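Input structure tokens:
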């Protein structure tokens, strides 16, 4: 693309970063992310979210948290949610609580973040915290939306 003198744009970088994320190529993803500024493309919150997900899945949770803290814009719930999911994968309670708190503030009616935090607590056998969190969810009247399918049974 660059050899053909075609400048990448936000969509191009979203595709590239997503591909590196799915392949688990952290260093390549970092190089791509850092090259955005070289091409006068400012990363959006979504680009940061992909990088947080990439770093988090690789177990580089502190680095992912630092990237969020360095963002030039306010991180949205998807960015914090990516860190929360990584914390569940790697059983990191401390950062999971930080990420969950931000998710709760940004999207207070979303129950999925409560479930992720409860799963983090359960993974390290903090059953009292699991119980407390589930009680809060019940008191707020949240209900889990049951799964559904567009497929009809034959």
């Amino acid at each position: 693309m660059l050899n053909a003198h075609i400048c990448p744009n936000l969509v191009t970088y979203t595709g590239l970063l997503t591909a590196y994320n799915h392949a688990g190529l952290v260093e390549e993803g970092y190089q791509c992310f850092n090259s955005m500024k070289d091409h006068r493309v400012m990363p959006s919150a979504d680009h940061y979210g992909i990088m947080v997900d990439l770093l988090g899945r690789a177990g580089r949770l502190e680095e992912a948290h630092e990237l969020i803290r360095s963002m030039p814009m306010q991180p949205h719930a998807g960015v914090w949610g990516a860190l929360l999911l990584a914390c569940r994968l790697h059983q990191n309670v401390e950062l999971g609580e930080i990420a969950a708190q931000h998710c709760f503030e940004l999207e207070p009616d979303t129950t999925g973040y409560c479930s992720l935090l409860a799963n983090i607590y359960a993974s390290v056998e903090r059953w009292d915290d699991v119980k407390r969190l589930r009680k809060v969810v019940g008191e707020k009247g949240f209900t889990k939306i049951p799964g559904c399918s567009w497929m009809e049974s034959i």
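The chain has a mean pLDDT of 90. Residues 118 and 134 are 7 Å apart (CA to CA).
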